[in-house]
Amino acid sequence: MEVIYPGSFDPITNGHLDIIDRCAKKFDKVIVSILNNTSKKTLFTVEERKELLEKCLEKYDNVEVDTFSGLLIDYAKKKKVTTMVRGLRAVSDFEYEMQMALVNRKLYEEIETLFMVSSGDYAYLSSSIVREISKFDGDVSCLVPEVVEIALKEKIKGGRRN
């Protein structure tokens, strides 16, 4: 079975990697799909996020990294995938994700959304928290892979004006 694990991954965190690792063990193929939302201001470009993900996921034979823009449902149809995985950290995630799953199902009745509960070690973790800590030179080494930590330092330092 193939699944899509969509997200913005700006940047990828250890929580994302945990979900991907668990999916890679359960499914034949995992397509990690990066949303290219041009109306949303991101720290990393979609190309940079794709490169970081590929570096973090190179050990997996059954994980592919891809990008998409527009509706996730249209992307799923194009890829001929009828199952997507969404990670849940808290009840607030569930409310939003359930609403999206129901809308997606209304638009594409073949799609199923599987919810994977975050590991307790990462239930608090989000990309926005990582970006905020990085912005103030905080230590994110326990929150993201080393390649992402380095990229964050370079990106934030490059954006500062002294």
Output the strand order for the largest sheet: 1-2-3
Tally the helices. Answer: 6
Report the biggest beta sheet as strand number plus sense, adding barrel if it closes.
3 strands, parallel
Q: What structural class do helix, strand and pairing data support?
A: alpha/beta
Quick structural summary:
The chain is α/β, with parallel strands linked by helices. The chain is 44% helix and 19% strand.
Structure description:
With 162 residues, this protein is of the alpha/beta class. It is globular and about 45 Å long. Strand 2, helix 2 (46-56) and strand 3 (63-68) form a beta-alpha-beta unit. The strands form two sheets. It has a three-stranded parallel sheet, with helices on both faces. A two-stranded parallel sheet has the order 4-5. The longest helix has 17 residues, at 91-107. The termini are far apart. It has helices at 14-26, 46-56, 72-79, 91-107, 127-135, 146-159; strands at residues 2-7, 29-35, 63-68, 83-88, 112-117. 44% of the residues lie in helices and 19% in strands.
Key words describing this protein structure:
162 residues; alpha/beta; two-stranded parallel sheet; 44% helix
Topology, please?
Elements: E1 2-7, H1 14-26, E2 29-35, H2 46-56, E3 63-68, H3 72-79, E4 83-88, H4 91-107, E5 112-117, H5 127-135, H6 146-159
Parallel strand pairs: 1-2, 2-3, 4-5
